[in-house]
């Protein structure tokens, strides 16, 4: 459909808004609003325009594995968010200075990307496309 212009936001179910808000603030996201609505939802947005809606209706407060990523059975569903970056070395150094552990690093076909987990086990990818290496 040509009417689709971009992803508007990503919804993440989280256990504790204050913990998630603090974590994503370290990545440069700014608190916009919430909790609001029937679910309820809180909203953070990065200056790049990436918007995350935190869904605050988790029924289990215990930290558990990510069913889509941490089990041998491969269930259908969204597995991660990929955030495009320009300088992987700088981003890695910043994350490490914040005590955020990088769980995997990959280089493939000129692209470079790595992964972290948020406090609820959601996977975030930081991705520098191969096309950014062309000059």
**DSSP summary: helix tally:** 2
Q: Architecture of the largest domain, according to CATH?
A: Roll
CATH topology of the largest domain: 2,3-Dihydroxybiphenyl 1,2-Dioxygenase, domain 1
Q: Which H/E pattern describes the elements?
A: EHEEEEHEEE
Structural class designation: alpha/beta
- In CATH, the homologous superfamily of the largest domain goes by the name 2,3-Dihydroxybiphenyl 1,2-Dioxygenase, domain 1
Poorly predicted segments: none
Strand order of the largest sheet: 1-4-3-2
The geometry reads as: globular
What does this structure look like?
By secondary structure, the chain is α/β, with parallel strands linked by helices. It has 2 domains: 53 residues, 2,3-Dihydroxybiphenyl 1,2-Dioxygenase, domain 1 (Roll), CATH 3.10.180; 57 residues, 2,3-Dihydroxybiphenyl 1,2-Dioxygenase, domain 1 (Roll). The protein has a 4-stranded mixed beta sheet, covered by helices on one side. The chain has a 4-stranded mixed beta sheet with strand order 5-8-7-6, with no helix packed on it. The model has no long low-confidence stretch (mean pLDDT 87).
């Amino acid at each position: 459909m040509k009417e689709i212009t971009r992803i508007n936001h990503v919804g993440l179910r989280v256990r504790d808004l204050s913990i998630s808000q603090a974590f994503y603030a370290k990545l440069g996201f700014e608190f916009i609003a919430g909790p609001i609505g029937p679910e309820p939802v809180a909203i953070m947005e990065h200056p790049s325009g990436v918007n995350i809606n935190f869904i605050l209706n988790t029924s289990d407060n215990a930290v558990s594995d990510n069913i889509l990523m941490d089990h041998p059975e491969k269930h259908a569903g969204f597995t991660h968010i990929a955030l495009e970056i320009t300088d992987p070395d700088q981003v890695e150094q910043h994350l490490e200075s914040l005590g955020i552990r990088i769980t995997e690093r990959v280089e493939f076909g000129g692209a470079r990307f790595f992964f972290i987990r948020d406090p609820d086990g959601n996977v975030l990818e930081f991705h520098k496309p191969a096309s950014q290496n062309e000059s």
